[in-house]
């Protein structure tokens, strides 16, 4: 690779001779300017027909892209114009995808902060029919059930990942890989029905237990744990294993003492993300755990309250004091989002803090 | 070949199999097999609980028209919502993936990808809240307009719902939910498009779009298809958002904007299961079995496409 000073060819400003036309280009910010002008026109158009934000966005995106295309077509020709049109469309697609995210976060914050107070975190709904009350019981229930699900899923998922990376071969490995992938697509409600059917066959009809919810969540969580742990274990350099074998360390000790500690940051991240994925699951808990108003922390004894189910019923079955129920529902949704976001951040932190020291 | 291979492969019979090794290898293998058993168990237990509904006389099934009459409209509703979501989400997701991989400034691209992934982290019940409180009212004017101007299309036959809690709204909520799934996979395959092809295209004077059209899209096509199918699987099984937003109750209708819509399998289970008793439970589980089979087929097809691509591409 030659640097510019070594380059024998000098770049000149003169257009090349021969039949090639000098290429005309739009000034640097002209495309952006045309796009903004198109959006402004769109806003004007929607203002004429009764202003609404949605119409502004739609008109603006269409007219903006059109303005860029026409402007570029006149100056730069067809190919360049198509390129600019696609750039405008692709950027618009990204911006459009941001709209629901921003709108959702804003709405949940706006409506959820009304009851984001001490009482919400310290009171249950026991004997609460109107205002007041809180989600103390539901938050703890979610913690208990999710923890139980993690206790079931993490050993199975991690061991399976170890099998796939360290031991597996041939048809069984391929089958497990394939069906773990397929399992990630099981609808959450089907996982709930599975847990219900399993426990109904064992304990008889109308059984509702916290552990049923944990089993249902495990069905959803195990494949996620397997996939993320497998990816991480694959990254452990083979030299480390070989060095360990060369010292006469048995394979299982190599895995436990060399491979897992090397990968611990990635494993922690993967498991935390798996927890984050199931902590907001509603449907499987709806059919297996149900909901109660009081605090029940024993997953082997009857119904429990969980935050997503709590939020759902507060919204869909409000009592006479409707606003109080809606406020509680939105605050529960806010707490749920915060919980998921915190888990995501923790996952990032784990991968940063516990990353193996490379020594370089 | 044999000369170089021989020293690295120790003769099998001289390896000492310690008990620790056996236990560890056995438990690892056992949990792998356990996962397969769980998947088989899901099918087996669902079937065993669904059998009473399959064998019951048709007048005992809710609705009185037999199991097919009960599940049929639900399947239609499930497919309608999911396909609508797919049609909206796929082009958007491809656009997003292209933007993040080839258009966004390098420095912020990773952050943008993370923001899109956040969409996937938001619990579905919260999407339901948002769809009910924000999206449905926002879309009401469009419903009215569509009923006025597009009623010659069966999908917009009307009359328009006044609340906006329609299949159209549900489809858009689902589209937002599956957007990150499709765009994540599309992003991955787009970024794996061979650099040599891309640079060759640019060197021949292609514009950025021509480079993408010639070098990236043909390479990423199967990945996008697979991602779309995974998104479809998710949309088919989505429960809470649909249960909250959709005002169901109608039989089979293609009308997307009416005030009463065909419910979906998953949301129907979520709404009726807590109060169901006796045969009603079995009927709901039978409908869940149908959903399981549909999503399983979609997912297996998607995974098959992904794996086939992985086998033949130079990416791995």
Automatic annotation (TrEMBL), chain A:
Locations listed in the record: Cell membrane
Keyword field: Cell membrane, Membrane, Phosphate transport, Transmembrane, Transmembrane helix, Transport
Coiled coil: none
Bilayer disposition of the protein: Multi-pass membrane protein
Alphabetical GO biological process terms: phosphate ion transmembrane transport
GO molecular function terms noted in the UniProt entry: phosphate transmembrane transporter activity
Segments passing through the bilayer: 29-47, 53-72, 84-109, 135-164, 176-203, 209-226, 258-279, 329-350
Region described as Disordered: 1-22
Domain ABC transmembrane type-1: 139-347
Task of the protein: Part of the binding-protein-dependent transport system for phosphate; probably responsible for the translocation of the substrate across the membrane.
PANTHER family recorded: PHOSPHATE TRANSPORT SYSTEM PERMEASE PROTEIN PSTA
Protein family according to the UniProt entry: Belongs to the binding-protein-dependent transport system permease family. CysTW subfamily.
Name used for this protein in its record: Phosphate transport system permease protein PstA
Organism for this UniProt entry: Geodermatophilus amargosae
Automatic annotation (TrEMBL), chain B:
Coiled-coil regions listed: none
Recorded superkingdom: Bacteria
InterPro entries attached to this UniProt entry: MetI-like, MetI-like_sf, Phosphate_PstC, Phosphate_Transport_Permease
Keywords, sorted A to Z: Cell membrane, Membrane, Phosphate transport, Transmembrane, Transmembrane helix, Transport
Molecular function terms, GO-annotated: phosphate transmembrane transporter activity
A single cellular component GO annotation: plasma membrane
Pfam family, one: BPD_transp_1
Positions of transmembrane segments: 32-54, 74-102, 114-146, 166-186, 239-259, 279-302
SUPFAM superfamilies: MetI-like
Role this protein plays: Part of the binding-protein-dependent transport system for phosphate; probably responsible for the translocation of the substrate across the membrane.
The name this protein goes by in its record: Phosphate transport system permease protein
Natural source organism: Geodermatophilus amargosae
Biological classification of the source: Bacteria, Bacillati, Actinomycetota, Actinomycetes, Geodermatophilales
């Amino acid at each position: 690779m030659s640097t510019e000073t070594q380059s024998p060819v000098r770049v000149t400003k003169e257009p090349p001779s021969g039949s090639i036309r000098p290429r005309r280009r739009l000034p640097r910010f002209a495309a952006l300017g045309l796009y903004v002008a198109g959006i402004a026109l769109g806003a004007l158009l929607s203002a004429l027909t009764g202003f609404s934000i949605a119409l502004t966005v739609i008109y603006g995106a269409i007219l903006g892209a059109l303005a860029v295309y026409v402007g570029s077509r006149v100056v730069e020709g067809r190919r360049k114009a198509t390129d600019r049109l696609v750039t405008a469309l692709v950027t618009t697609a990204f911006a459009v995808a941001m709209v629901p995210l921003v709108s959702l976060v804003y709405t949940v914050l706006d409506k959820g902060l009304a009851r984001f107070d001490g009482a919400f975190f310290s009171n249950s709904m026991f004997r609460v029919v109107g205002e007041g009350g809180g989600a103390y019981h539901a938050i703890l229930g979610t913690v208990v059930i999710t923890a139980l699900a993690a206790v079931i899923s993490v050993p199975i998922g991690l061991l399976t990942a170890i099998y796939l990376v360290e031991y597996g071969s041939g048809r069984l490995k391929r089958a497990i890989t394939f069906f773990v992938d397929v399992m990630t697509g099981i609808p959450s409600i089907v996982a709930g029905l599975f847990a219900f059917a399993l426990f109904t066959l064992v304990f008889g009809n109308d059984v509702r237990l916290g552990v049923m919810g944990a089993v249902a969540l495990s069905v959803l969580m195990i494949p996620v744990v397997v996939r993320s742990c497998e990816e991480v274990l694959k990254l452990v350099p083979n030299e480390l294993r070989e060095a360990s074998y060369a010292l006469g360390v048995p394979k299982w000790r190599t895995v436990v003492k060399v491979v897992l500690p090397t990968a611990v940051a990635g494993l922690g991240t993967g498991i935390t993300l798996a927890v984050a994925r199931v902590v907001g699951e509603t449907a499987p808990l709806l059919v297996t755990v149900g909901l109660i108003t009081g605090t029940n922390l024993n997953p082997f004894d009857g119904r429990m309250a969980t935050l997503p189910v709590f939020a759902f019923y507060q919204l869909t079955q409000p009592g006479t004091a409707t606003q109080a129920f809606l406020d509680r529902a939105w605050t529960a949704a806010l707490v749920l989002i915060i919980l998921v976001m915190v888990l995501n951040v923790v996952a990032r932190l784990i991968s940063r803090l516990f990353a193996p020291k490379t020594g370089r | 070949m044999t000369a170089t291979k021989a020293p690295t492969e120790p003769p099998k019979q001289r390896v000492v199999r310690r008990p620790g090794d056996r236990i560890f290898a056995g438990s690892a293998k056992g949990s792998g097999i356990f996962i397969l058993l769980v998947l088989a168990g899901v099918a087996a237990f669902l079937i065993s609980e669904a059998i009473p509904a399959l064998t019951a006389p048709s007048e005992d099934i809710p609705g009185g028209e037999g199991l097919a009459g009960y599940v049929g409209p639900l399947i239609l509703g499930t497919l309608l919502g999911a396909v609508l979501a797919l049609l909206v989400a796929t082009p958007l997701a491809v656009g997003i993936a292209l933007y993040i991989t080839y258009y966004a400034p390098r420095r912020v691209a990773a952050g943008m990808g993370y923001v899109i992934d956040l969409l996937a982290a938001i619990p579905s019940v919260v999407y339901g809240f948002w769809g009910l409180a924000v999206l449905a009212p926002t879309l009401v004017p469009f419903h009215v307009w569509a009923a006025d101007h597009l009623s010659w299309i069966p999908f917009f036959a009307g009359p328009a719902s006044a609340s906006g809690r329609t299949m159209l709204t549900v489809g858009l909520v689902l589209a937002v939910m599956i957007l990150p799934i499709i765009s994540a996979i599309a992003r991955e395959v787009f970024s794996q498009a061979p650099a040599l092809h891309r640079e060759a295209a640019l060197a021949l004077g292609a514009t950025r779009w021509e480079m993408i059209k010639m070098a990236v899209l043909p390479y990423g096509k199967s990945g996008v298809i697979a991602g779309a199918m995974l998104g479809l699987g998710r949309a088919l099984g989505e429960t809470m958002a649909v249960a909250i937003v959709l005002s169901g109750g109608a039989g089979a209708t293609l009308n997307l904007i009416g005030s009463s819509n065909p419910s979906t399998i998953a949301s129907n289970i979520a709404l009726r299961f807590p109060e169901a008793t006796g045969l009603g439970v079995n009927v709901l589980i039978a409908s869940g079995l149908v959903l399981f089979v549909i999503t399983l087929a979609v997912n297996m097809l998607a995974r098959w496409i992904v794996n086939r691509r992985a086998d033949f591409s130079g990416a791995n």
